[in-house]
Amino acid sequence: MKDAFGLPQSLLVLGGTSEIALATARRLIARRTRTVWLAGRPSPALEASAESLRALGADVRTVAFDALDPESHETVLGKVFAESDIDMVLLAFGILGDQARDEREPVSAVRVAQTNYTGAVSAGLVSAGALQAQGHGSLVVLSSVAGERARRSNFIYGSSKAGLDAFAQGLGDALQGTGVHVMVVRPGFVRSRMTAGLDEVPLSTTPQAVASAIELGLRRRSETVWVPGALRLVMSALRHAPRAVFRRLPL
Amino acid sequence: MSGDTVSVTGWGRTAPTAARLIRPRTYEEAAAAVRSCGARGSIARGLGRAYGDAAQNAGGSVLDMTGLDRIHAIDADGGTVLCGAGVSLHRLMEVLLPLGWFVPVTPGTRQVTVGGAIGADIHGKNHHVSGSFSRHVLALELLTADGEVRAVGRGTPLFDATAGGMGLTGIVLTATLRLLPVETAYLSVDTERATDLDDLMARLTATDHRYRYSVAWIDLLARGGATGRAVLTRGDHAPLEALREGTRARRHPLSFRPRRLPAAPALVPEGLLGSTTVGWFNELWYRKAPRARTGELQGISRFFHPLDAVPHWNRIYGRGGFVQYQFVVGYGQEDALRRIVRRVSAHRCPSFLAVLKRFGDADPGWLSFPVPGWTLALDIPAGLPGLGAFLDGLDQEVAAAGGRVYLAKDSRLRPELLAPMYPRLADFRALRAELDPHGVFVSDLARRLGL
User: Which of A101, B125, B257, B364, by CA, is between 20 and 30 Å from A243?
Assistant: First the structure.
């Protein structure tokens, strides 16, 4: 069960090698979390992630989960929920893709969309159903500012996050009054493995900062969290910029 | 019976979870609801004054017991009452005071049910004299997991597990209580100020035995030499001759008419109660108290339940809610108490309802909170930065001193600390495993702490 500050005792991470997810797990283990499930494609990296969290004293288990195989989600996640209550699901899987290549190769562009959007729709609905049955829990969805308004430089990734973001917002409204809390987290540019080699932009952030914002959002039962918080204003302005102006911005 | 699924929280308004809320009107309906509660079990709920998650049951059913509110029999000569578990202490006072009887133990609110009072084994300002609520329970009827009703007498393991058992042994249906005779509905109250914590402890230690009721409001924001300054209010039921001739009180000595102020608004901005505003309040409260006054007549509500005058007072903490922290450390552990008070003061916890009291002898309830020693209760807005880690630090201090925190107020204890704090926990778990092998009775508190 979550405590008065919204801190979970059990955590299920979908996308068990995500740096943001692991930073969040470390933070939560330091407070109340004792049981962690890391779901992801079986790999040495997944096992290494699990090992790093075990070293902090948590009971960590891995489970084979593939975002691109939605047919299996019900079974795979069902088993996790059948073992015990899950206080928080962190939907953290996603790929950035390679914009230039994805524009040339529609098949790889679709893979971005399937991972980030349709895979998340399936896993999100399965998780939401299980959380609703247990009458409590938080579903934390890692969206992105890229989904707020599509940009020339990464609109394939951005469009997939836009879909995910809209889905998660609607899901949060659908789950009002069921005891389940859905929180959409919109980080800006996060310095991590996923963005290694990309040029940094202003208001960039770190996995640790996102983790800290998630912890705060859990306590406040926030529905939307921007990291850093100033992005909310910036993106609000950018969203209203005329197309012709927005196109010319060096984003 | 099927109830609507609603979001449920404790009085502190933190950690909401959803449950089917069922309001049985008869004992048969309650038994039927328990038998058909499903895999996620059931828990009884009274008036929802437990601060944390004790009367919540995520995904299962919550039995609102306030429908079982009949007073079955009053022995006006012997001073006992047999009533349904959903009867509130407020109702008991309304009915019993005109007959010259008072509830044996009342907490800081009348808005608790008899069932809840047993489940949390509540205490009042008279604990050092009268013990906790269960000491005055002569018998009770308990609806257990098999759907049967058992008569539970004092001195049995089931009684001791149920008193303070947070509703996890079953659902109390009725209870027989022993009452306290009173001549009037007024209290004769002595008020004095203590300049710091040591002065306060000295005053309480020296003269508590003279009073049936004793409590100290403590200013936890005061710093330096004033750390722990306090206002002591102690008293006893006023005898008839204490009421002046010719006054309304003398003509109607047993009339019980508590005042009711407007309710707190539904929407209060978060952070209204910061350390600045509460600091001003505390300063004012301390200064307006007389240095020493004896024999002042106060009504029951003013003396015992000042906050009951403001319906929904818990809303003043805003949407984020608040956390109550109450612990007890034994006599001889005064240094731990001093350290904790200093830490709370240094952390600037904006707490304006902090009270310190001395407990007397413990009662046999296995998870009953009171043990002989010092108990401090404070409330803090849940949104105070770093509060979770700060209270974890206090837990360590309390546990190291052999003390414990109060489960009826808890919403955030680390589960590992429960067993050291409650040595009879293993017995409690064993009894539950035998009596309720399928876990029919379960609450969010039980899940969180592994009770």
Answer: A101
